[in-house]
Amino acid sequence: MKHKILIADGLAKEGQTLLKNSPNVELLSFDAIDRKALKEALGSVDILIVRSRTTVDADLLDSAASLKVVIRAGIGLDNINVPAATERGIIVMNAPTGNIVTTAEHAIAMLFATSRHIARADASIRAGKWEKKLFQGSEIRGKTLGIIGLGNIGKVVAQRAQGLEMQVVTYDPYVTPEAAAKYNIQVLSLEDLLARADYVSIHVPLIPATKNLLNAKTLQLMKKGAYVINCARGGIVDEVALVEHLQSGHLAGAALDVFETEPLPADHPLTRLPNVVLTPHLGASTDEAQVQVGVEVADQVTQYIQGGVLKNAVNVPNVTLEQLSVLRPYLTLCERIGAFAAQVGPDRKLSKLRIRYEGVISQYGRELLSLSVLKGFLTPLLSTGVNYVNARNLLKERGIRVEESVSAECDDYASLVELKVEGETSFVCAGTIFGKDEPRIVQIDNFNIDAIPDGTILFTKNQDQPGVIGALGTLISSLGINIARMHLGRDKAKKEAIALINVDSPLTSDGVEALKKVKGMLLVKQISV
Question: What is d(CA 10, CA 53) in angstroms, rounded to the nearest whole number?
Fold first, then answer.
């Protein structure tokens, strides 16, 4: 049986050669196929390989009657509608390891460039000037590098920096001090890291919890004369606040490879600041990285064709179609419980995840269910691709233990899945399936609730007193946000109540802050599941 493969955005020749030499493969390769031609060609294609240029949305997938696999030749999946692919039974894979080193090296290059004014000095000489005194720089030896996010890329940055005789500290609530100590790195709170670091390098994904992580308030906590380096994702640094702190002289400089809007507008205030180094999202742009990604993709395709192996699949576990038909709704439930707990539960000193299965579901493939919980838990927290293969190792690297237990008995439901997150505090979330396939959250800590975990959700806790929920709904409405559903739970003994509010569109950070100021409000978190 021939497998028809289409490369839409180009792929390193080394990867293409491996694919051409694979048996039973028909290869179509384009450096930049336009959308109309791609839709016409997809009708008989089995495997689609894209980079960042092609958008794989529901409309495109509707043209792909034979498509079985979409592979992103890189880490990010921003241009692939994974839920739409999943609904159509299409496997989505990525290539998460090929550009780890090159992205880390770019961060180090940016550190040097901003410390020694490389870009400005080069431009000065090209203009016929010799301004040696103007471009006196800073030595990095002996300085402190604060790494926000000690994932795969963050670790490589740390190793390179230590080789340059820098002191390295990290803020990563999902890495234990013991795990970081293996790399001779100290774990600090965000506030302590910002106060101590001469350079702050960002290596976390853009999620609600990291949106504008460095903002007017947190940038002010940084040591005067420090530098910000962002080669992760635009939007983690509040660009308006960054400009203000650079103009005031509180920060000595910044080096940015990513931006809230890309391409960066030509009239953006950042382009007018002399103490900023800007590059057009070059983190993964090296010859070596492209070769590594190409070979990685070719290897994944070969393993899939020859043995049905799903390597780096992000939406399908290693399971037969017969098993999947039974487990699919519970896999969805487990992933959403994990994602919910990751965004609402404790974010400091995480040590253990306890997963418990009760009732009928305890008799099925618990390993797959647990992997779905872990994948859901890690995905909102890490920039590195998370899948059913690497989820356990990613937790192990961070010193977080996983314990599983089962009980054939379940008092209130046919089946129940419970996740307890243990850290500086603890958090419990439990859910079940209503009907044939509708996931529901039925317990949050000591609160009983009946909530649908889907889309953007506002999770609130408040004093159980008149007027709070009414004020909350009125304020959300005044922000132009439509409430799709609202689910309530209460603890009469503690006189506290919670709400899970499904909204049609996310609130801005200012909107969330406004909700926190409602009288009687104890907690507001905006999450996505």
Answer: 10
* 194, two tokens: 């910002």
Give the active site residue among 14, 87, 165, 262: 262
Examine the residue annotation and report whether 409 is marked as an active-site residue of this protein.
Answer: no
Supply the CATH number for residue 508's domain: 3.30.70.260
CA angle 478, 484, 490 (to 5 degrees): 90
Which element (helix H / strand E) includes 425?
none
User: What is the predicted pLDDT for the residue at 521?
Assistant: 93
Q: Which of 430, 445, 460 is the last residue of a domain?
A: 445
Give the model confidence (pLDDT) of 279-290 as tens digits. Answer: 999 998 899 999
Residue found by looking up tokens 């940084």 in the block = 222
Annotation marks residue 418 as catalytic: no
Residue 69 sits in a domain whose CATH number is 3.40.50.720
CA distance 190 to 171: 6
* pTM for the predicted model, two decimal places: 0.76
- pLDDT in the model for residue 321: 42
Provide the CATH number for the domain around residue 354. Answer: 3.30.1330.90
Domain around 59: 1-98+286-314
Do 301 and 258 reside in the same domain of the chain?
Answer: no
The pLDDT score that the predictor gives to residue 311 is 81
Q: Which of 106, 245, 281, 336 is catalytic?
A: 281
Q: Which of 120, 233, 336, 366 is catalytic?
A: 233
Same domain, 145 and 248: yes
User: Is residue 51 annotated as part of the catalytic site, yes or no?
Assistant: no
pLDDT-based confidence at residue 386 (cuts at 50, 70, 90): confident
Amino acid letter for position 93: M
Same domain, 196 and 120: yes
Please tell me whether residue 497 adopts helix, strand or coil conformation. strand
Q: How many domains are contained in the chain? A: 4
SS3 of 87, please?
Answer: helix
